[in-house]
Design brief:
The chain has 661 residues and is α+β, with helices and mostly antiparallel strands. The strands form five sheets. It has an eight-stranded antiparallel β-sheet with strand order 10-11-12-13-21-17-16-15. Strands 8, 9, 14, 18, 19 and 20 form a six-stranded antiparallel β-sheet that branches.
Length: 661
């Protein structure tokens, strides 16, 4: 049996818990770091070769040439017109392939794309599709350099002459992540002699100090970028703004604020190691979440940081970043298409539903531009990855942390031994693009070496009915059942941490009305490497229970079973399975009339009842070789200070597990 005792745990829990409580201006000089390096589950390096990035890029490029017109423009297969930045991003990706000596037959396609994109650029924002001048500015200066040596010098000079368009004709004043594209792009123009150095520095400094960019990321508790486009803040778009600022520093920005920028963006990227799920996904919540390109943005940031840590002598951190980048890359393979004529492209959002349904899309979400984002940022990741670095387990595979984000993100994460939970402590109360982007409650359960789509990976609040589904309390009110995710206008959660160790985490969420009336609830979570035991209590609720969110269909029907006090879902027999089971007396009820379509697919809420004022649920993500859900349920016994089962036991701060974990 593996045993963990309290004294060892307490020495680690205290520093991290204190970090979670201090204000932004009081944070320590060092980046958030974990003191342990061993994993609870067997670990092996992924050994993903750098050229596998090129394989993925080439697949998207070969798909894209089917949609390139005679002028070089990339035409969206659903919109039937050129859209946003699809063409320059394609040109960048082809240039990367050619630079690597790959896909030389695509060179002419890349040249035509460069001809068209630079022509648009020369006309200013009015000549750029959908007025996306900032995005063209960030991509084209470096794209030109990728073709150097592969096209005549006259062609390079021709493109460069077109890239002298005054910044005022390209940048329209947006102060969210769009401004970071302009900062990155203007510095690249200066670097390659396409704009004056001093003028570029003045623009970047003005944007940083007086254009909100410093306060958006420097004022955040963990130096995550606040886009201010949804409330709570979007984790997906966070990676855009922070990533562009990291790219600015990586490309050698030397303005007066460069040292401050470096410190802030490196710390923010270190924080995201704790937010990545064990299968490599970016966290949910906020505008444009659950899009495939989100994970590529994490991959790119981690590759940049790996290459920064290695020469600094921090080989362990470098190995963690490299492995985390590989996890992100591995993650997106689940949404790569192999069905003609879409072969090589990626679904826009993380499901296998018909893209024409636009599930989880914002208005900007389209097939051409977001496949463009995938290939462009994969190309940047390939270019960033220059050094062979020995992989190390990523923090998300080790665990030993529990922390809340800045209040503007209003999210919390906890991880023990690679078993992660991610929760939204408040949610949208108004729609953005006719969507509620964040759902109140625990949205994600994920485990190392397990398909986190089953988790589920996100909750949902349906736009028209306002019905929501997350793992959270549910209660009877005025003759009908209310899900916590239904009522973010009334309720919020408060996250607290009681104990933290790499193999055992105890934390809680207290839900209470902040407007109006209603019962209060407390959910106590005990995380171990095998699963999560949740005890839900209420002193003032009448009839209540807990919602189990079952992934039912993501374009492919899953195998769902509900029997007694057990519910499971899996993509196929003898594959990974998510299991919700309860020792509480009562029968779980499938609320088939309350299904919601999340970005990942259809979620079926299953109501597990409370008895004598409490409900106890074990969330058990299992591999095919793990004990069956039925055997774990039958062996589960709740004790005053924990539980025991065929998986192992928890007593206070002592965790014991089976030897073959």
């Amino acid at each position: 049996m593996k045993t963990v005792k309290a004294p060892w745990a307490a020495s680690f829990a205290l520093p991290l818990f204190l970090l979670a409580r201090v204000e932004a201006q009081d944070l320590p000089e060092t980046l958030p770091q974990l003191s342990f390096h061993l994993t609870a589950h067997p670990w092996t390096p992924l050994k993903i070769a750098r050229d596998q990035y090129l394989d993925a890029i080439e697949g998207v490029c070969r798909f894209t040439i089917q949609h390139q017109d005679a002028h070089g423009a990339v035409i969206d297969p659903f919109l039937h017109r050129e859209h946003q930045y699809s063409t320059p991003y394609f040109a960048f990706a082809v240039g990367t392939l050619v630079q690597a000596g790959r896909a030389l037959d695509l060179l002419e396609n890349g040249i035509r794309a460069m001809d068209h994109a630079t022509e648009c650029f020369a006309k200013g924002d009015a000549g750029i599709p959908d007025a996306h001048g900032e995005f063209f500015l960030a991509a084209l200066p470096e794209a030109v350099e990728l073709y150097r040596g592969h096209v005549p010098a006259e062609k390079i000079a021709f493109w460069q002459a077109r890239l002298h368009t005054p910044r005022e004709q390209l940048v329209k004043g947006g102060l969210n992540n769009w401004r970071t594209y302009a900062m990155k792009g203007e510095w690249l123009r200066a670097k390659f002699g396409l704009a004056g150095h001093d003028d570029a520095v003045a623009f970047i400094e003005e944007s940083w100090l007086h254009g909100q960019q410093r306060e958006r990321i420097g004022g955040d508790k963990w130096n995550l970028y606040q886009d201010h486009t949804t409330n709570p803040e979007p984790h997906a778009v966070e990676a855009v703004g922070r990533g562009n600022l990291l790219a600015l520093i990586e490309s050698g920005y030397d303005g007066p604020s460069s040292a401050e920028m470096k410190k802030i963006v490196e710390r923010g990227t270190a924080t995201t190691l704790l937010l990545q799920d064990p299968s490599g996904q970016c966290p949910p919540n906020g505008r444009t979440d659950d899009h495939v390109f989100n994970d590529v943005l994490y991959q790119l940031g981690f590759e940049v940081m790996a290459e920064r840590a290695q020469p600094a002598g921090d080989h362990r951190a470098a190995g963690q970043y490299r492995h985390a980048a590989m996890l992100s890359f591995q993650s997106i393979a689940r949404w790569r298409r192999s069905d003609p004529p879409w072969t090589g492209s990626y679904y826009v959002t993380k499901n296998h539903l018909d893209p024409a349904q636009r599930v989880g899309y914002q208005p900007a979400s389209n097939y051409g531009n977001y496949n463009g984002a995938v290939m462009m940022h994969l190309a940047e990741a390939w270019l960033a990855r220059r050094t062979e670095i020995t992989e190390q387990p990523a923090p998300t595979e080790i665990g030993g942390y529990a922390l809340a984000m800045d209040g503007k993100f209003a999210s919390a994460v906890a991880n023990a031994g690679g078993m992660q939970m991610f929760a939204a402590l408040r949610a949208d109360t108004s729609k953005v693009y006719d969507i509620y982007w964040t759902a109140l409650g625990v949205e994600r359960f994920a485990r190392v070496n397990w398909d986190s789509r089953l988790g589920p990976s996100d909750g949902e609040r349906e736009t028209k009915t306002t019905h929501g589904v997350t793992f959270a309390p549910t209660w009877m009110e005025d003759g009908r059942w209310i899900h916590m995710a239904d009522v973010p206008e009334r309720y919020r959660g408060k996250f607290s941490v009681q104990f933290v160790h790499p193999l055992l985490v105890r934390c809680a969420i207290d839900y209470a009305p902040y407007k109006g009336a209603g019962p209060s609830f407390r959910q106590d979570f005990v995380l171990t490497p095998d699963g999560v035991l949740i005890t839900t209590r209420s002193k003032d609720a009448g009839e209540f229970g807990v919602t189990w969110p079952l992934m039912e269909n993501d374009g492919d029907a899953l195998h769902v079973k509900i029997a007694g006090n057990l519910a499971t879902t899996t993509y196929a027999d003898h594959r990974d399975e998510q299991c919700f089971l309860s020792p509480t007396i009562g029968t779980a009820v499938a609320e088939t009339d309350a299904k919601v379509l999340s970005t990942y697919g259809w979620l079926l809420p299953v109501r597990s009842p409370a008895a004598a004022g409490l409900n106890q649920t074990l969330v058990y993500p299992r591999n095919p070789t793990d004990p069956s859900a039925e055997s774990v349920r039958d062996s589960l016994r709740i004790t005053d200070d924990g539980f025991q089962s065929s998986l192992g036991s928890v007593h206070g701060t002592l965790w014991q597990t089976r030897c073959n974990i």
